Amino acid sequence: MSEANVSAKVTDEADVVLIGAGIMSATLGAMLKQLEPTWSQIIFERLDVPAEESSSPWNNAGTGHSALCELNYTPLQHGEVNIAKAVRINEKFQVSRQFWSHQVDNGILTDPREFINPVPHVSFGRGDEQVAYIKQRYEKLSKHTLFEGMQYSDDDAKFAEFLPLMAKGRDFEAEKVNISWFEGGTDINYGAQAKQFLEAAQKGGTEIRYGHEVVTIKADGAKWKIVAKNVHTGDISTVKASFVFVGAGGMALPLLQKSGIKEIKGYGGFPVSGAWLRCTNDELIEQHAAKVYGQASVGTPPMSVPHLDTRVIDGKKGLLFGPYAGWTPKFLKQGSFLDLFKSFRPTNLPSYMGVGVQEMGLTKYLITEVMKDEAARLESLREYMPTAKAEDWELVMAGQRVQIIKPSGAPRFGSLEFGTALINNPEGTIAGLLGASPGASIAPSAMIEVLERCFGNRMIEWGPKLKEMVPTYGVALSGDKQLFREVWDRTQQTLKLED
Predict the structure, then answer these.
(1) Which domains does the chain have, with CATH numbers?
(2) 315 with 309: CB under 8 angstroms?
(3) Exposed/middle/buried for 411, CB within 10 Å: 0-12, 13-18, 19+?
(4) What is the share, in percent, of the chain residues with pLDDT greater than 70?
(5) Most exposed among 30, 34, 162, 353, judged by the fewest C-beta atoms under 10 Å?
(6) What EC number(s) does the entry state (predicted)?
């Protein structure tokens, strides 16, 4: 692009720059606005509207990942179900509920029912091995404080009563089935939640520059220089900031690479796309009211865990099945086919090559998924809903996920991580979040970690305010049954999750 086509803007100053107008930046911005009301904030978003990538309700599961039903958080190890990860994730989700409740009480989040609704969470087993696993998982989790109230049944009549769509046409004599469930599960629209946060932010003085793509992040003394391009006009603008947070979903990796911080060296990203089957028959939609998760095939990524999923989006109930995994080199759903290749660096090529060698099973699985036709997708759905008909479902694209490729030593060189990782420099002036699940569900907990890492010298001063936002900040609810019940009841009421 020639200089004649671009007009340079005078450099602006900001205390905080947030990159990406999704749930992560929206959450951190809300926290910082309450901790330091005088700090100026600017948000850059490459799209013309907020929360249309990973935070969009059609681009993620919306489960409210609290490990109530997601079986990949309770792996079977040496014949025993390990619940440690499920407990950690549930603890973090309780932080989310408390923070959201505080934001509702203070008018930042204005309508809970726009973004959170009660939907039971169900774990589903079929066949002897899965049935035994579901039962053992229930026996371990139901004894734990955070999972108290979880229920279980291997009774066919109960199954049919609770999940009529899944029972109709099923041969219960030919294959054992069982379920465990938690009535207090939720469906969450993180796009709607992010929009409520951002509307309050703008009213509070935050400047949001939509249609602006950050092209460069460079250190400039003790500050950072952020250069952004207007995607419509090509105009270039520059902002100097004391603190930068990269909450740009899949593009967090390349943006952190551009910053030059050594902490990102060796990291790579493995993009995984997906698709849903969305029910178009209102009669069927009304017959199902649960998020039903099964077990993923061996070697498949967590985002491909199959589920028959009740959603509430824009006030309307819907039903999805999937996701069916796929592959594209894009780091964002509306990204570029060059995203993956642009992320290659001499420092992370060993990580990429190491994962390429180690994950041949995953590669084979993704190729198989990409090749699935309508009949094959319908056959997968019929494992959950035996009487499913093609005319009642349509194929829609899910969101793009970039799983973390983490650097490690020989002989592995790199490892594929199915989670999230916070990257920051030692000075605490820049940070970013890599990875996907459980992602948005634990955004408040993740953003508190950003505060602890990057503003450690202020945490004593901020402590009382943080305790207002999250009353149990610093306390493990799993160790205090009475406190957990009090917090649960309070957040149920504030978030309008009680009938």
Answers:
(1) 3-484 (3.50.50.60)
(2) no
(3) exposed
(4) 92
(5) 353
(6) 1.1.5.4
181 Cβ contact partners less than 8 Å away, ≥ 6 residues apart:
69, 120, 121, 122, 123, 150, 151, 152, 162, 290
Q: Cα separation of 484 and 321, whole Å?
A: 33
Four-point Cα dihedral 383, 304, 336, 224, nearest 10:
150
Strand partners of residue 416: 405
Cα–Cα distance, 469 to 447 (Å, whole number): 12
Residue 295's pLDDT band, with cuts at 50, 70 and 90, is confident
Contact call for residues 474 and 452 (beta carbons, < 8 A): no
Q: Report helix, strand or coil for 77.
A: strand
pLDDT at 328: 84
pTM for this one?
A: 0.92
Q: Give dist(CA 423, CA 453) in Å, integer.
A: 10
In contact, 443 and 191? CB cutoff 8 Å: no
CA atoms within a 13 Å half-sphere pointing along the CA-CB vector of 345? 18
* Tokens standing for residue 125: 């087993």
Which tens digits make up the pLDDT trace of 248-273? 988 999 999 999 999 999 999 988 88
Residues 6+ away with beta carbon under 8 Å from 43: 17, 18, 19, 20, 21, 25, 29, 198, 201, 206, 207, 208, 209
Query: Which pLDDT tens digit goes with each residue over 89-108?
Result: 999 999 999 999 999 999 99
Angle between helices 459-469 and 23-35 (to 10 degrees): 110
Joined together, the tokens standing for residue 205 give 């003085």
